[in-house]
Amino acid sequence: MYGDTLLRSQFGKPSGLFGALFMGPILNLANARLVNAAVELLDPQPQDMVLDIGFGGGLSLVTLADRAPQAKIAGVDYSREMVSTAGRLVHDKALDARVSVRWGDVAKLPFRAATFHKVLTVNSLYYWPDLPGSLREVARVMKAGGRLAAGFRSRASLGPLTRDWEGFWLYEPEEFAGHMRQAGFEVLRVEHRDRWQVLDTVVVLGRKPRRKPTGSSGSQESSSRAGDRSRA
Protein backbone atom coordinates (compact mmCIF):
# COMPACT_ATOMS: atom_id res chain seq x y z
CA MET A 1 0.00 0.00 0.00
CA TYR A 2 2.82 2.38 0.91
CA GLY A 3 4.57 1.52 -2.33
CA ASP A 4 1.48 2.37 -4.38
CA THR A 5 1.11 5.70 -2.54
CA LEU A 6 4.76 6.53 -3.13
CA LEU A 7 4.57 5.71 -6.83
CA ARG A 8 1.36 7.70 -7.33
CA SER A 9 2.75 10.79 -5.57
CA GLN A 10 6.14 10.63 -7.26
CA PHE A 11 4.79 10.14 -10.76
CA GLY A 12 2.30 12.98 -10.26
CA LYS A 13 4.64 15.42 -8.50
CA PRO A 14 8.19 14.19 -7.95
CA SER A 15 9.48 15.61 -4.69
CA GLY A 16 12.09 15.20 -1.99
CA LEU A 17 15.40 13.42 -2.37
CA PHE A 18 13.88 10.47 -4.23
CA GLY A 19 12.16 12.75 -6.73
CA ALA A 20 15.23 14.90 -7.27
CA LEU A 21 17.66 12.01 -7.75
CA PHE A 22 15.68 9.30 -9.50
CA MET A 23 12.39 10.44 -11.04
CA GLY A 24 13.83 12.42 -13.96
CA PRO A 25 15.60 9.45 -15.58
CA ILE A 26 12.73 7.09 -14.69
CA LEU A 27 10.17 9.37 -16.36
CA ASN A 28 12.34 9.90 -19.43
CA LEU A 29 12.76 6.17 -19.89
CA ALA A 30 9.09 5.34 -19.27
CA ASN A 31 7.81 8.11 -21.55
CA ALA A 32 10.19 7.79 -24.49
CA ARG A 33 7.95 5.95 -26.94
CA LEU A 34 4.93 8.09 -26.07
CA VAL A 35 6.93 11.33 -26.35
CA ASN A 36 8.19 10.40 -29.79
CA ALA A 37 4.71 9.54 -31.03
CA ALA A 38 3.17 12.75 -29.68
CA VAL A 39 5.91 15.01 -31.06
CA GLU A 40 5.65 13.29 -34.41
CA LEU A 41 1.92 14.07 -34.66
CA LEU A 42 2.31 17.60 -33.27
CA ASP A 43 4.90 18.30 -35.97
CA PRO A 44 6.46 21.51 -34.55
CA GLN A 45 7.89 23.89 -37.14
CA PRO A 46 10.98 26.13 -36.93
CA GLN A 47 8.91 29.32 -36.55
CA ASP A 48 6.65 27.91 -33.83
CA MET A 49 6.26 28.90 -30.20
CA VAL A 50 5.70 25.60 -28.39
CA LEU A 51 4.46 24.89 -24.86
CA ASP A 52 5.22 21.61 -23.06
CA ILE A 53 2.93 20.97 -20.06
CA GLY A 54 4.25 18.48 -17.51
CA PHE A 55 7.65 17.78 -19.04
CA GLY A 56 8.90 15.61 -16.15
CA GLY A 57 12.55 14.72 -16.67
CA GLY A 58 12.83 16.89 -19.78
CA LEU A 59 12.99 14.34 -22.57
CA SER A 60 9.99 15.92 -24.33
CA LEU A 61 11.68 19.35 -24.29
CA VAL A 62 14.79 17.98 -25.96
CA THR A 63 12.75 15.98 -28.46
CA LEU A 64 10.79 19.09 -29.44
CA ALA A 65 14.02 21.06 -29.82
CA ASP A 66 15.55 18.37 -32.01
CA ARG A 67 12.46 18.17 -34.19
CA ALA A 68 12.24 21.95 -34.76
CA PRO A 69 15.77 23.35 -34.40
CA GLN A 70 14.76 27.04 -34.44
CA ALA A 71 11.49 26.84 -32.49
CA LYS A 72 11.10 28.58 -29.13
CA ILE A 73 9.97 26.14 -26.45
CA ALA A 74 8.54 26.89 -23.00
CA GLY A 75 7.90 24.22 -20.40
CA VAL A 76 5.83 24.19 -17.21
CA ASP A 77 5.73 21.47 -14.57
CA TYR A 78 4.02 21.25 -11.16
CA SER A 79 7.08 19.66 -9.57
CA ARG A 80 9.85 22.09 -8.65
CA GLU A 81 12.28 19.16 -8.55
CA MET A 82 11.49 18.36 -12.18
CA VAL A 83 11.92 22.01 -13.14
CA SER A 84 15.45 21.84 -11.72
CA THR A 85 16.18 18.44 -13.27
CA ALA A 86 14.92 19.41 -16.73
CA GLY A 87 16.68 22.77 -16.48
CA ARG A 88 20.00 20.97 -16.03
CA LEU A 89 19.28 18.74 -19.00
CA VAL A 90 18.44 21.76 -21.16
CA HIS A 91 21.69 23.41 -20.10
CA ASP A 92 23.74 20.28 -20.73
CA LYS A 93 22.26 20.11 -24.25
CA ALA A 94 23.15 23.79 -24.85
CA LEU A 95 19.49 24.64 -25.48
CA ASP A 96 19.16 27.53 -22.96
CA ALA A 97 18.79 30.12 -25.73
CA ARG A 98 15.50 28.73 -26.97
CA VAL A 99 14.17 26.35 -24.29
CA SER A 100 12.93 27.73 -20.96
CA VAL A 101 11.38 25.90 -18.01
CA ARG A 102 9.39 27.14 -15.02
CA TRP A 103 7.03 25.97 -12.31
CA GLY A 104 3.39 26.19 -13.33
CA ASP A 105 -0.10 24.79 -12.89
CA VAL A 106 -2.24 23.90 -15.88
CA ALA A 107 -5.23 25.37 -14.02
CA LYS A 108 -3.66 28.84 -14.43
CA LEU A 109 -0.86 28.88 -16.96
CA PRO A 110 1.64 31.75 -16.54
CA PHE A 111 1.36 32.99 -20.12
CA ARG A 112 -0.62 35.56 -22.06
CA ALA A 113 -3.51 34.57 -24.27
CA ALA A 114 -2.78 33.45 -27.81
CA THR A 115 0.96 32.86 -27.25
CA PHE A 116 1.62 29.38 -28.62
CA HIS A 117 1.30 27.71 -32.01
CA LYS A 118 1.68 24.20 -30.58
CA VAL A 119 1.12 22.58 -27.16
CA LEU A 120 2.34 19.18 -26.00
CA THR A 121 1.40 17.23 -22.89
CA VAL A 122 2.52 13.66 -22.24
CA ASN A 123 1.41 11.47 -19.31
CA SER A 124 0.24 14.51 -17.35
CA LEU A 125 -3.52 14.69 -17.76
CA TYR A 126 -4.17 11.84 -15.27
CA TYR A 127 -3.44 14.41 -12.53
CA TRP A 128 -5.75 17.18 -13.82
CA PRO A 129 -8.79 17.09 -11.47
CA ASP A 130 -10.67 19.64 -13.60
CA LEU A 131 -10.05 18.33 -17.09
CA PRO A 132 -12.58 20.59 -18.90
CA GLY A 133 -11.27 23.70 -17.12
CA SER A 134 -7.68 22.72 -17.82
CA LEU A 135 -8.35 22.16 -21.52
CA ARG A 136 -10.03 25.58 -21.74
CA GLU A 137 -6.98 27.13 -20.05
CA VAL A 138 -4.71 25.43 -22.55
CA ALA A 139 -6.87 26.78 -25.38
CA ARG A 140 -6.58 30.29 -23.89
CA VAL A 141 -2.81 30.41 -24.35
CA MET A 142 -2.99 28.96 -27.88
CA LYS A 143 -3.17 30.93 -31.08
CA ALA A 144 -6.20 30.41 -33.32
CA GLY A 145 -5.44 27.41 -35.50
CA GLY A 146 -2.89 26.13 -32.99
CA ARG A 147 -2.56 22.43 -32.25
CA LEU A 148 -2.54 20.38 -29.05
CA ALA A 149 -1.11 16.87 -28.87
CA ALA A 150 -2.02 14.92 -25.74
CA GLY A 151 -0.17 11.66 -25.18
CA PHE A 152 -1.31 9.15 -22.57
CA ARG A 153 -2.00 5.51 -21.77
CA SER A 154 -5.54 4.20 -22.07
CA ARG A 155 -7.66 3.09 -19.13
CA ALA A 156 -7.57 -0.47 -20.41
CA SER A 157 -3.77 -0.42 -20.44
CA LEU A 158 -2.89 1.54 -17.28
CA GLY A 159 -5.95 0.76 -15.15
CA PRO A 160 -4.83 -2.66 -13.86
CA LEU A 161 -1.54 -1.15 -12.66
CA THR A 162 -3.12 1.86 -10.91
CA ARG A 163 -6.38 0.37 -9.62
CA ASP A 164 -6.12 1.82 -6.09
CA TRP A 165 -4.56 5.18 -6.96
CA GLU A 166 -6.62 8.17 -5.77
CA GLY A 167 -6.66 11.45 -7.68
CA PHE A 168 -5.59 9.66 -10.83
CA TRP A 169 -8.00 9.83 -13.78
CA LEU A 170 -7.83 7.57 -16.81
CA TYR A 171 -9.49 7.80 -20.22
CA GLU A 172 -10.06 5.77 -23.32
CA PRO A 173 -8.94 7.46 -26.56
CA GLU A 174 -12.37 8.44 -27.88
CA GLU A 175 -13.49 9.46 -24.39
CA PHE A 176 -10.66 11.98 -24.13
CA ALA A 177 -11.33 13.16 -27.67
CA GLY A 178 -14.89 13.90 -26.56
CA HIS A 179 -13.59 16.04 -23.70
CA MET A 180 -11.45 17.98 -26.16
CA ARG A 181 -14.46 18.68 -28.36
CA GLN A 182 -16.49 19.84 -25.37
CA ALA A 183 -13.67 22.28 -24.52
CA GLY A 184 -13.95 23.77 -28.02
CA PHE A 185 -11.23 21.92 -29.90
CA GLU A 186 -11.55 20.31 -33.27
CA VAL A 187 -10.25 16.75 -33.05
CA LEU A 188 -8.01 16.03 -36.01
CA ARG A 189 -6.67 12.62 -35.18
CA VAL A 190 -6.84 9.83 -32.62
CA GLU A 191 -3.88 7.45 -32.67
CA HIS A 192 -3.93 4.23 -30.66
CA ARG A 193 -0.74 2.23 -31.07
CA ASP A 194 1.06 -0.62 -29.31
CA ARG A 195 -2.15 -2.28 -28.17
CA TRP A 196 -0.34 -5.60 -27.82
CA GLN A 197 2.20 -4.20 -25.33
CA VAL A 198 1.69 -3.90 -21.56
CA LEU A 199 1.54 -0.10 -21.92
CA ASP A 200 -0.11 1.21 -25.06
CA THR A 201 0.42 4.53 -26.84
CA VAL A 202 -2.43 7.01 -27.31
CA VAL A 203 -2.10 10.44 -28.92
CA VAL A 204 -5.07 12.73 -29.52
CA LEU A 205 -4.37 15.69 -31.80
CA GLY A 206 -6.66 18.72 -31.59
CA ARG A 207 -6.83 22.18 -33.10
CA LYS A 208 -8.12 25.47 -31.66
CA PRO A 209 -10.60 26.73 -34.26
CA ARG A 210 -9.72 29.87 -36.19
CA ARG A 211 -13.19 31.11 -35.36
CA LYS A 212 -15.66 30.05 -32.69
CA PRO A 213 -17.63 27.04 -33.91
CA THR A 214 -21.32 27.70 -34.54
CA GLY A 215 -22.51 24.22 -35.40
CA SER A 216 -20.62 21.05 -34.95
CA SER A 217 -17.99 20.68 -32.29
CA GLY A 218 -15.31 19.70 -34.71
CA SER A 219 -14.30 17.12 -37.21
CA GLN A 220 -12.28 14.06 -36.60
CA GLU A 221 -9.96 11.85 -38.44
CA SER A 222 -9.31 8.72 -36.45
CA SER A 223 -6.63 6.29 -37.32
CA SER A 224 -5.56 3.21 -35.45
CA ARG A 225 -2.50 1.09 -35.91
CA ALA A 226 -3.51 -2.42 -35.07
CA GLY A 227 -1.00 -4.48 -33.22
CA ASP A 228 0.77 -2.64 -32.80
CA ARG A 229 -9.22 14.10 -15.39
CA SER A 230 -5.80 20.30 -12.67
CA ARG A 231 -2.03 19.83 -12.68
CA ALA A 232 0.91 19.97 -15.01
Short description:
The protein is α/β, with parallel strands linked by helices.
Description:
The protein is of the alpha/beta class. It has a single domain (2-224), classed as Rossmann fold (3-Layer(aba) Sandwich), CATH 3.40.50.150. Helix content is 36%, strand content 22%. The chain has an eight-stranded mixed β-sheet, sandwiched between helices. The longest helix has 27 residues, at 16-42. Residues 1-13, 17-22 and 215-230 have low confidence and may be disordered.
Structural class: alpha/beta
* Architecture (CATH level 2) name: 3-Layer(aba) Sandwich
Q: Give unreliable regions as ranges.
A: 1-13, 17-22, 215-230
- CATH C-level class is Alpha Beta
Q: Rg to the nearest angstrom?
A: 16 Å
Order of helices and strands: HHEHEHEEHEHHEEE
Largest sheet: 8 strands, mixed
Chain-averaged pLDDT = 85
Helix content: 25-40%
Strand content: 15-25%
Total beta strands: 8
Tally of separate helices? 7
Query: Biggest sheet, strands in spatial order?
Result: 3-2-1-4-5-7-6-8
What is CATH's topology name? Answer: Rossmann fold
Ends apart, CA distance between termini: 25 Å
Please name the fourth-level CATH homologous superfamily. Answer: Vaccinia Virus protein VP39
Tally of separate domains: 1
Indicate the overall shape.
globular
